[in-house]
């Protein structure tokens, strides 16, 4: 493979991951035509989770701005916005990219945003593009969006809309009485009136079908009568007394279904008594009938002992799924463990498992401040396409003062705007 082919391969790998290396390669190799790969990045969002991660429009737009084939790429964006029918997050990304063109006085791409909004929408994506119109044209943009929704509802009377667009616009424009302005327009515009009436009906229906909160006698009643792995308890901020009460019940509990529910709490809170109980649960033979072993292993990440570390190292080194036991090292890491973590990271190819490792390794090295974090975290940095977890990895590398010059240069052009700020 010649140098140009190698550089293009390197560029595309970076582009898919969203790292700033892609920008630097275009900047430093002006004679190489990267346009076909840039177009792929413009038409597709390669994020691990397009819904959780912000769009990568600014990232791609910056790369386009230093390309010598800007018009070719621009035409592809124009066509892509008009024709994308397969992926909601690709379409969201294209709207965001087109908005950046529009803000540079590109009237054709601005019109393309208006033309595509609610025109043959992908199922479940009628909202896509609405807020880009508001960002471009403020209240007049909102009038346009409301009218388009009204026309759509007239043709699709079973459709329903809520008021999230209006609420968000109001929050960002406190000086405007948004609902009052819409109601004024509705007097002479039947489609805006249809839209507002639909929102009113939606709210009434939601109120009618609102589930009444269940009242529990105490925390034990609540835990034992709610679904296992219910993250509500993580958000609840249980008191020490409540955690102790749950733990004492777990010590005496014999019903496996109840054990499962009680154990799950200790994925979010440290078990306050003898850790041997949790370790014994973790050592049980896994069964498809319950998740006791899984929940016990999750709970061990907060607990530290020689026996827990021995159990963890044996499972990490000898089980088919060593990743399942890595979180135990959050409280049981020892100097030199980075070599094992690096080995696992090097062997891991699945993007889902790489994403899992990124979360676990970040937890390990937040709890264990060490320069040993450099090698395993850099391996993941060079493999992962999740900008959210990459941001966390970069923060740790900076905090531990082991960030390489290469990564320090790249993060200035990362797809994640928060990661770019870390360069400062």
Textual characterization of the structure:
This protein is mainly alpha-helical. 63% of the residues lie in helices and 0% in strands. The chain has helices at residues 3-17, 21-28, 35-43, 57-65, 70-83, 88-102, 107-116, 130-155, 164-172, 178-186, 190-208, 219-224, 232-236, 240-252, 256-264, 276-283, 292-299, 306-318, 337-347, 351-367, 374-381, 387-399, 405-410, 417-422.
Q: How would you name the oligomeric state of the polypeptide chains in this document?
A: single chain
Q: What Rg do the Cα atoms give?
A: 26 Å
Beta-strand residue percentage? under 5%
Number of helices: 24
Distance between the termini: 37 Å
- Please indicate the count of domains: 3
What low-confidence regions span 5 or more consecutive residues with pLDDT below 50?
none
Report the biggest beta sheet as strand number plus sense, adding barrel if it closes: none
Order of helices and strands: HHHHHHHHHHHHHHHHHHHHHHHH
Mean pLDDT: 93
Helix content: 55-70%
Specify the overall morphology. flat
The tally of strands reads: 0
Q: Based on helices, strands and strand pairing, what is the structural class?
A: mainly alpha
């Amino acid at each position: 493979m010649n140098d140009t082919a190698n550089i293009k391969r390197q560029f595309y790998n970076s582009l898919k991951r969203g790292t700033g290396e892609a920008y630097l390669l275009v900047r430093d190799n002006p004679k190489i035509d990267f346009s076909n790969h840039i177009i792929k990045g413009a038409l597709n969002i390669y994020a691990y989770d397009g819904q959780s991660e912000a769009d990568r429009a600014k990232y791609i737009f910056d790369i386009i701005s230093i390309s010598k084939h800007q018009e070719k790429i621009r035409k592809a964006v124009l066509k892509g916005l008009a024709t994308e029918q397969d992926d909601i997050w690709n379409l969201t990304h294209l709207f965001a990219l087109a908005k950046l063109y529009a803000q540079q006085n590109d009237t054709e791409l601005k019109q393309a945003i208006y033309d595509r909004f609610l025109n043959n929408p992908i199922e479940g994506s009628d909202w896509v593009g609405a807020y880009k119109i508001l960002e471009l044209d403020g209240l007049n943009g909102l009038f346009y969006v409301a009218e388009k929704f009204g026309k759509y509802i007239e043709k699709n009377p079973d459709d329903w809309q809520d008021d999230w667009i209006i609420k968000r616009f109001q929050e960002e424009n406190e000086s405007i009485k948004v609902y009052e302005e819409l109601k004024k327009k509705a007097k002479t515009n039947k489609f805006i009136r249809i839209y507002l009436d639909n929102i009113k009906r939606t709210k009434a229906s939601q109120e009618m079908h609102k589930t009444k909160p269940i009242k529990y006698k105490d925390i034990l009643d609540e835990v034992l009568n709610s679904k296992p792995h219910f993250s509500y308890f993580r958000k609840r901020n249980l008191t020490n007394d409540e955690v102790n009460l749950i733990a004492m019940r777990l010590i005496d509990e014999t019903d496996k279904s109840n054990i499962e529910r009680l154990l799950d709490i200790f994925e979010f809170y440290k078990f306050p008594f003898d850790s041997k109980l949790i370790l014994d649960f973790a050592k049980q033979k896994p069964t498809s009938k319950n998740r006791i072993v899984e929940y016990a292993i999750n709970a061990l990440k907060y607990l530290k002992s020689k026996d827990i570390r021995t159990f963890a190292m044996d499972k990490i080194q000898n089980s088919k799924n060593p990743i399942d036991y890595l979180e135990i090292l959050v409280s049981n890491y020892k100097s030199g463990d980075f070599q094992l973590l690096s080995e696992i990271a090097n062997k891991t190819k699945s993007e889902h498992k790489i994403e899992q490792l990124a979360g676990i390794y970040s937890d390990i090295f937040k709890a264990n401040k060490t320069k040993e974090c450099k090698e395993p975290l850099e391996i993941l940095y060079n493999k992962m396409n999740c900008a959210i977890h990459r941001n966390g990895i970069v923060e740790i590398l900076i905090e531990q003062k082991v960030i390489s010059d290469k990564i320090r240069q790249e993060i200035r052009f990362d797809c994640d705007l928060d990661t770019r700020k870390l360069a400062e």
